[in-house]
Structures are given as C-alpha cells and as structure tokens.
Amino acid sequence: MASKLLRAVILGPPGSGKGTVCQRIAQNFGLQHLSSGRFLRENIKANTEVGDVAKQYIEKGRLVPDHVITRMMLSELENRQDQHWLLDGFPMTLVQAEALDRICDLDLVITLNIPFETLRDRLSRRWIHPPSGRVYNLDFNPPLVHGVDDVTGERLVQQEDDKPEAVNVRLRQYKEVAKPVVNLYKSRGVLHQFSGTDTDKIWPCVYTVFSNKITPIQSREAC
Question: Is 18 known to sit in a ligand binding site?
Fold first, then answer.
C-alpha cells in the first residue's frame, strides 16, 4: 500500500451520481472532497474577485472560463498539500488538466459512464437548494416535504438546464469537452471506467479500486 498522499479525480456527466460516489469515497477513505461547484458558490457568496467574475458568466448562462476555474482550484489545492484529496468537477477541460499537471501527478482517475436515457431521467427529476447546493431527486432521494429543503425549510427549485429541453444540450456539451480529458488519463494508465445505471452496484467496484491505493478507514458495508 502506497504511503504517499493520494491525488484522485472523478469524472462524469451531470446526473451521473458523482456527488453520491464522492461522499462515499470521502467517508470510507478519509479523502478531502474538493468540489469546484461548491468552491464557486462559496466565492460568489463571499464576493471574492473570482466569485464576482464567475457570477457575471453564470448570470449570462455562459460557462465560467478555464482560467477562472483553474485559478480558484489551484489556490484551494495549495492549502491542502498535506492531505489526501478527491477532485470533483475539475479538471473539466484539457486546458484545466494541463494546468493541474504542472502542480501534481494524479494517482487515480475514475469516470462514470451512465446511459443517456438514465441521465436524462435523473436530471429531469432533480431539484436543488441553491444556497447550499443540496441536490434532491424525486425518485431515489426525495425531500422529506415535497418542494422544501430538509435542513432550512426553504423552497427548492429546478434549474433551467435540468429541464428536459435543455438536458440534451448539456450532455452533448459534456461529452465533447470531456472526451480529450478521458483520453489523456487513459493514455497514462490511471483511468478506471465504471458503467451502469445503479450507483449502489457501481460503488463496490469503485471501493475496490481505491482500496488498492489507500487503506480504508471503514468498510464499504458502513455506507
């Protein structure tokens, strides 16, 4: 078992179950779950320079540029040089992957391959609590009270790009952008691909791959 600090990345399209898998990895292996989406929300809420720039793009319905995301994430990683970590949502593009290369070598990259029909159904049933980023699915992770956040009692919303008419575009864009990143890590021998429609069935395979890299702090049955 390697004693070095583990550097891992999870890739997957919207609706692939990345959030659930990341939570389980963090709980079972003690990795810091570093989500680019969460950091963006925190920066926007705190009115940082990065947050203000990102907000301008998001409000126009545009993707936040590579250099903004990269600056934010590399800054976060500088503060975690002595920790095991798992990146979620970064790198999303080849430019971001090349920037990450300059500061570290990845040990493990996993990608979740979920059928298009499953992704479309999951996204169309997804509702969120914008201030916290909590995500609910009406089928397998519904709120305790319909339309209301479990923690705050505030109203849940469905994002415009989660509505059926926008999902096709989102998934096509992800595939085009992610393909070069997947191919890069595949060529380096660090990529592990998992396919299926049920996160609970994919999870034991993910657990095994991580177990070969880092000692678990609890068994997967504890999830």
Answer: yes
